[in-house]
Amino acid sequence: MESLPNAMILVLLFVLRLGVPLLVTGAIAYGLKQLDAKWQAEAETGAQAEPAAEPSTQPTGAAADSRL
Q1: What is the CA angle 53-58-61, rounded to 5?
Q2: CA 35 to CA 22: how far, in whole Å?
Q3: Which DSSP symbol is given to 1?
Q4: pLDDT tens per residue, the chain (68 residues)?
Q5: SS3 25
Q6: CA-closest candidate to residue 39, choices 29, 27, 47
Q7: Four-residue CA torsion sign, 12, 13, 18, 24
């Protein structure tokens, strides 16, 4: 009779050893998926709200030398 509780404890510990890391990994994956969806929504909103900016012009060599 003593072997049944020992076997149940062994099975429980085995399930915990596998289950807890799987649950943690699943929670992290779910959180990253939600974060990615948020970032994609922000990127789409930002791309529509802001027009493309003009590239800034670099000063010419003569203008850069005059500041020295």
Answers
A1: 170
A2: 20
A3: -
A4: 688 899 999 999 999 999 999 999 999 999 999 999 999 999 998 877 666 567 777 766 665 556 66
A5: helix
A6: 47
A7: positive
CA atoms of 19 and 50, how far apart (whole Å)? 46
DSSP-assigned letter for residue 59:
P
> Residue 27 has which token pair?
């929670």
Which helix H or strand E contains 2, and what residues bound it? none
* Whether pTM exceeds 0.90: no
In the DSSP assignment, the letter for residue 44 is H
Fill in the amino acid letter for 44.
E
